[in-house]
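Just scan my protein:

——
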Amino acid sequence: MKKADYLTGLALILLSVYVLVESWRMPRLQELHVNPFSVPGIVPAFLAVVLMIFGLILVVRSVRAGGHHLSLSREGIRKTLADPGNRRLLLTAVLTFVYAAVLVGHTPYTLVTGLFIFVFVAVFEWRRDMSRREMGRMGLAAAVLAIVFAAAVSYTFERLFLVTLP
């Protein structure tokens, strides 16, 4: 866990820096005389600071325990990837990267978000021993979740937070 905490902490710190930069670049709506504490970038910036604090805590604890000594070998990588939790984490990272870096901005936001939610739920709820009926129920549930939450997220950001979505 020491090495995992170290790497996770570094990833959280890098993500936090990125979110802080992007929060700063968001519109401040000065022309609308909006209160500075209600601008769209304030919540992501706050969350980024919290994530950064937790990332720093993980890194410091890991360094104290010697987790910053990384030894990469083929056997070590194979062993790491054999763990089901690590495979799920990697799959989550790949799905999220494809959603955020590839699809968002090139396809309507609500559609892409709904697709992401549907695929995410379907992938992580699927089991090899599922019957057709269970697959159908799971697919229906994933579709309902995708439609409801994609619409809710889009509405919330566009109408309540006044954020123009890509």
Observations:
- Residues 132-160 form the longest helix (29 residues).
- The radius of gyration is 20 Å.
- The chain is about 75% helix and 0% strand.
